[in-house]
């Protein structure tokens, strides 16, 4: 304790303690012998019993949580049924330890037998305790949808987070580089009225602005950029925030490529739309075309034009994120994938080299999701150039619905024609008893 905290203590004593319980946790008290002695010095604060804890080792955290739980129950402001499992577990546990207290509906003889661990009541107490403990495991934890808000410095990432939560979750300033670390904020969104679906749990991660690699020196900025890139890797959806008044820069293209390489679903959020001057009926279409051409790395991502300062169209982010999550986890049957692949090959056969080597594609199937991963079997993966890969990606997106907000990862594997024919002949088609014979696509025969 020092003089710098005096104003905070006065505020807690006069304004907070009369309405909200206050507990003092003294950190860095790892030692069991001297921790309590060191924490005893903080009785002078006048805020009650100080709890010696260690955030690094976890010592004393349970005692703080128990005190917080008792304060919430005592205050009576919790929701209905709050902490009932903890209370039942404590009662059952206390009944096992303390045999002097009578249970409901128990006489003196039954209490005496429970003292020595015999009788029906002893088994009932243990069963009650086990049920109270098992109740914690029966609850299924809600899945959190991780959403990373990334972009260049000073494009409005923190302002967007504050607008979504309706409060000052992040510090906002006109000076670039205000956000120094990734800030997590959890939101529970209720289902639509009349729907039986469970609520959706979002975890928004406000990251620091990412500058060009050459401008980042080793130091605080180096580590905050690494944490921002790590937030992209562990996210389900990345909100790529752009400045609608400044257009697309080279750093925006690098971030878009990073999102695509990590296989994350993406939503392009063009902020500061209210600052765009001279808008007319064609401005929106021209802007969409501009961002599509300037960001070919995520040409499949939906685009939203919002204003974090005024809240314009910020509510559309939730529905777009939900659609991106569904697309990121989408799975297509092998039969449908091969129908689309057959049409794409008949429309544009694989390229051939000058020496006469011809690429032959046999079939494909989806092997995983998050992102959707499609394995294509061909005679030689080296014969499939990048242009044809982009062509297949475009044809699949045109023919299949639901891949608008997620990248598709393509894996090309080499396999000989006779191996394909042998496996088809041995396995056959469904219903032919395993004796059928199938062939590759017409161009591969």
Describe this structure in words.
Helices cover 39% and strands 15% of the residues. The protein has 14 helices and eleven strands. The chain has helices spanning 6-16, 35-40, 61-75, 84-97, 108-115, 120-138, 157-165, 220-233, 250-261, 283-294, 316-328, 334-347, 386-399, 417-427; strands at residues 24-26, 50-52, 144-151, 183-189, 200-206, 237-243, 265-271, 303-305, 361-368, 373-378, 409-414. The protein has a six-stranded mixed beta sheet with strand order 4-5-3-6-7-8, sandwiched between helices. Strands 9-10-11 form a three-stranded mixed beta sheet. A two-stranded parallel ribbon has the order 1-2. The termini are far apart. The model is unreliable at 429-445 (pLDDT under 50).
List the helices and strands and how they pair.
Blueprint (H helix, E strand, L loop, with lengths): L5 H11 L7 E3 L8 H6 L9 E3 L8 H15 L8 H14 L10 H8 L4 H19 L5 E8 L5 H9 L17 E7 L10 E7 L13 H14 L3 E7 L6 H12 L3 E7 L11 H12 L8 E3 L10 H13 L5 H14 L13 E8 L4 E6 L7 H14 L9 E6 L2 H11 L18
Parallel strand pairs: 1-2, 3-5, 3-6, 6-7, 7-8, 10-11
Antiparallel strand pairs: 4-5, 9-10
